[in-house]
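Let's study a protein:

===
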Amino acid sequence: MDKHSLRIILIQLRDATEWSQKYFAEYFYIPRRTLQEWEHGKRGMPEYLLRLIVYKLENEGIVKGFSKKFS
């Protein structure tokens, strides 16, 4: 999956949680600046990490259907 597609999924995922960047970053122990750079396309997010975040949020019942975006 390309960098742009991962960026879009990340933004949609955070929007679905209705969490701020600050809260999302703190929840996953990710530096806020790193999250900002992923969302703005300045850095590429590793696909495996996004898959793990989706897995955790789906299993905790916070979001639904995001794992289908990786098919």
